[in-house]
Design goal:
The protein has 334 residues and is of the alpha/beta class. It has ten helices and twelve strands. The protein has a five-stranded mixed β-sheet with strand order 4-3-5-12-6, sandwiched between helices. Strands 10-7-11 form a three-stranded antiparallel β-sheet. Helix 1 crosses helix 2 and helix 2 crosses helix 3.
């Protein structure tokens, strides 16, 4: 079985006849006929039912064409990726990232990208997502990696990288560490540790507390999730943390409690400006970040994420019925 045979079968199915398929493929009709007959002989099945008036797929042909199209799509994808590797040999990508990225390992992803595209220079800048999106607007950044909230302005596009969940971190031995089913309202009298005002996590804390009927008393501010964990572990307060930040890494131990209802943490995603086309280097980096995450986003969706308070083988309509002027195997012989 040869690739050109798959191509010929798919073309005859798509264009509804041998002559039109041959014209689109820029080969002689006799070559198309001969290759399809050879394939049918190898398979021991007729792929097309031929009459003097029309050519149609047999049930076996319908199954074969569906598989052939998958194979050809995979090959096209491989060609595209190989072209990226050979074509994108230089350039620069400037990425903005928030301090907290949940389970997504951005340093490892960037290291793998550098190994894959050694000629592309990478620059990384950290900050709050609101400021990073502003830099994206100004053209100072190509991509932003961070939490993506439901009110992401439509001038930005986002693709998902990782999901995250929030829970309450409390000092070991704290009374809330031994409580049963826990609501955020039960921590209303506690001192809170959080990121500074304007951060997404601070907004989530204040919004969740407002829904629970109180204003959180934030007495200690940290610059990142690791700092929140250290301050909570030291007994200075309680705080909302992502599960990955509270339970992973090598930081000091804290007790973690699930909250009911659970404060909603936006998914982690990679964002870019719709108003400014990405360079080939930035496009490759964006594709790589999603690929490393193992996510397969629906290309038709704008963003299931969003910022921070973040063909059928039918014949052509005008094609005439057509027969193949040579004999073929099996019950469908013309």
């Amino acid at each position: 079985m040869e690739l050109r045979q798959l191509s010929y079968v798919e073309a005859v199915a798509r264009y509804g006849g041998f002559t039109r398929a041959a014209e689109r493929l820029h080969v002689a009709q006799s070559a198309v006929s001969a290759q399809i007959r050879a394939l049918e002989a190898e398979l021991g099945l007729a792929l097309f039912a031929r009459t003097t008036r029309r050519v149609a797929l047999t049930p076996a042909g319908e199954l074969f064409v569906a598989r052939a199209r998958r194979v050809m799509a995979e090959l096209d994808g491989a060609r595209t990726e190989l072209h990226e590797i050979t074509a994108v040999v230089s350039g620069r990508v400037t990425i903005g990232a928030t301090a907290t990225l949940g389970p997504y390992d951005l340093p490892q992803a960037l290291a793998r990208f550098r190994d894959r595209f050694p000629g592309i220079a990478l620059r990384l800048r950290s900050g709050l997502v609101t400021g990073l999106l502003g830099a994206l607007d100004e053209g100072e950044l190509d991509l932003v990696v961070g939490p993506v909230h439901a009110d992401l302005p439509p001038r930005f596009d986002a693709l998902p990288l990782a999901d995250e969940h929030l829970l309450l971190a409390v000092p070991l031995g704290h009374v809330l560490a031994r409580a049963g089913r826990l609501t955020l309202g039960e921590a209303r009298d506690e001192a809170f540790v959080s990121l500074r005002q304007g951060s997404g996590l601070r907004w989530i804390l204040e919004d969740a507390a407002r829904s629970a009927g109180f204003t959180p008393r934030v007495q200690f501010e940290a610059s990142d999730a690791a700092g929140i964990r250290e301050l909570v572990a030291a007994g200075l307060g309680v705080g909302l943390l992502s599960r990955s930040a509270a339970e992973g890494g090598s930081g000091p131990a804290v007790a973690v409690r699930n909250l009911h209802p659970t404060p909603v943490h936006p998914p982690i995603g990679v964002m870019h400006s719709r108003d400014r086309p990405l360079s080939p280097a930035a496009q490759s980096c964006r594709h790589h970040l999603v690929e490393v995450a193992g996510r397969q986003p629906d290309p038709s969706h704008r963003s299931a994420l969003s910022p921070e308070p973040e063909s059928d083988p039918g014949s052509d309509p005008g094609s005439e019925p057509e027969s193949e002027p040579e004999s073929g195997p099996g019950p469908g012989s013309e």
